[in-house]
Amino acid sequence: MALLEVTNLDVRFGLRQGEVRALRDVSFTLERGERLGIVGESGAGKSVAAFSLLNLIGKPGFIAGGSITFDGLELNSMSERALRKVRGNRISMIFQDPMMTLNPVLSIGEQMVECLKAHRRISSKQARAIALDKLQQVQIPSPETRLDQYPHELSGGMRQRIIIAIALLLDPDIIIADEPTTALDVTIQAEIMALLLELCEQHNVGLILITHDLGVVSQVTQRMLVMYAGRVIEQGPTREIINDPQHPYTQGLINALPQMATPGERLNQIRGSMPSLSNLPDGCAFHPRCDFINKANGEPRPACVQKVPEFVDSGNCRVACHMVAEMQEDRRLKLEEIS
Prior knowledge:
By secondary structure, the chain is α/β, with parallel strands linked by helices. 35% of the residues lie in helices and 23% in strands. It is built from 13 helices and twelve strands. It has helices spanning 46-53, 80-84, 98-101, 108-119, 124-137, 143-147, 156-168, 186-203, 214-220, 238-243, 248-255, 302-306, 324-338, and strands at 4-15, 18-30, 35-39, 61-70, 73-74, 91-94, 174-178, 206-210, 223-228, 231-237, 311-314, 317-320. Strands 6-7-8-3-9-10-12-11 form an eight-stranded mixed sheet, sandwiched between helices. The chain is globular.
């Protein structure tokens, strides 16, 4: 049995004009020590999926259906009091902006000691010793000094290292990292991701990495989910999806990477934009932007505009697309022409 199992997760937001489905039938698993990436454009539902795991969705959002099972515990049916024993303790979360996570009026040491004492029956001296050890693990220089400093006295990269140290304080089974390097420059991003990967491997911690950066996903994760308009549209081993994407949306994301463009030419891009969740197109939500659905006469294919695609197996991946078989045949013919 997987450490974490999410089945047909349905998350909605109750608005005046009616309910909006932010997540639709999202299912995935995470094994102990495994690293999973969740990618997609802004508005795809990545962060909502992450927040749902610990029921951190603010009103008017709510989990309308499905199940979230962690180590035999049904998280979405647990009371708030019981769930607090899991949050931060067995499942930790790293948010996008460390300055929004850290309390500006408490020193780093006070915040780390407070976190430990909320979950463990230990003295302040013992808690401070553990906090110091975690700061050393995340390679914070002069950790004794940093414990008595405040967040505003530290650089962005230093603050993010401290957030990682706090996430590791209680030796969790899973860390959920929601765009953990968004506010950092490129060199610091690489250092933070390398550190996070090293720590997860050392402590056999499962990692769920939420990001829009396919480069980071390819280097850090073992499996990945691609989300679009609140639904998982492709999932499987990271290396297979990066090397041979099956869904037109995934292909578009990879083709939009700068290294995929011809030098001196405009970058490739997916035409159009993510649809509003309150006004999703019929059939496949991606069909208005898809370059593969048009027939010779320019009319869209009936299946793509009428029916939500079911998952089909393609190698070790699962893809929600009506066109998988046809696209595979098209690629085969092109390879034959080249050879």
